[in-house]
Amino acid sequence: MGFHEARSWRERLVAHRGLAASFPENTLASVRGALEAGARRVEIDVQLTEDQVPIVFHDATLQRLCGVGGSVLSSHWSQLQKLRASEPGRFGTRFADEPIAHLADFAALVASFGAHAYVELKGESLARFGDEAMLAAIRAPLEQLAGQCTLISFELPVLGLARERLPHPVGPVLKEWSDLERPELVQLEPEVVFVDDLKLPPGPVQALAPLCVYEVQLAQRARELVERGVALIETFHVERLLAELE
Question: Domain ranges in the chain?
């Protein structure tokens, strides 16, 4: 279903790092929780390990999600498989058995639900390994999401290269609203544009492509944004918002 044909909130809401309000973010448990709650769209982040394995992970460091020191970018996948993505600062030992997710396992889960994935390519990994290495790493895992995946990033060059190399739609994440006027962004002809709610101008909004606004936590705010022209609403609280909006 396209943006303009979307009628239900299930099609409008994007689960930000899965159901991150209730599970450790960017884990298979979080993604499954969002999909089982009824979400039809989910957004996750991808970093590369030192041996260039794509993992579902937001930070470049391990401390917040795994409770240990060190860098994702300097660790081999074999090392990271021994850690747990339990987000102990929020959940203690509740999710002590939750592993770090490989991108291929995430893609298989989303495909099994027939949902759509927004895959953010993180700047730290792009700076360390390069755009071509990132696209090479994600190509095979995302083949199972043909027609069900959009690549997004703050970094426009990797999206331009992805447009040439991979079959997936692309969408920039704006650093500022004024980025919409950048020639390279206009030339990209994106299928979607992501923007922080705090960066929006007042009044009705319109961009080069349908807008997805994050991070939205209140149902009233979600309704207001849709009335102003926003197509998609990204939230950590997809289960609660679905219950309140539907």
Answer: 9-48+107-245
Rg over CA atoms, the chain: 17
Q: Which residues make beta-bridge pairs with 233? A: 13, 213
Report the distance separating Cα 181 and Cα 11, nearest Å. 28
3-state helix, strand and coil shares in percent for the chain, rounded to the nearest 5: 40, 20, 40
pLDDT in tens, 170-229: 999 999 999 999 999 999 999 999 999 999 999 999 999 999 999 999 999 999 999 999
Pairing status of strand 41-48 against strand 170-172: unpaired
CA atoms of 200 and 16, how far apart (whole Å) = 18
Place of tokens 């058995």: 97
Rounded Cα distance between 140 and 9, Å, is 31
Residue 16 Cα to chain centre, angstroms: 6
pLDDT tens, residue by residue, 215-241: 999 999 999 999 999 999 999 999 999
CA dist., res. 197 & res. 216, Å (int): 7
User: What distance in Å separates the CA atoms of residue 95 and residue 86, rounded to the nearest whole number?
Assistant: 5
> Alpha helix locations (H) across 37-84?
63-66, 77-80
pLDDT, one tens digit per residue, over 46-98 is 999 999 999 999 999 999 999 999 999 999 999 999 999 999 999 999 999 99
Q: Does domain 9-48+107-245 have CATH number 3.40.50.1580?
A: no
Q: Are 43 and 15 in contact (CB under 8 A)?
A: yes
β-sheet bridge partners, residue 235: 15
What is the DSSP secondary-structure string of 198-243?
GGPPSS----SS-EEEE----HHHHHHHHHTT--EEEES-HHHHHH
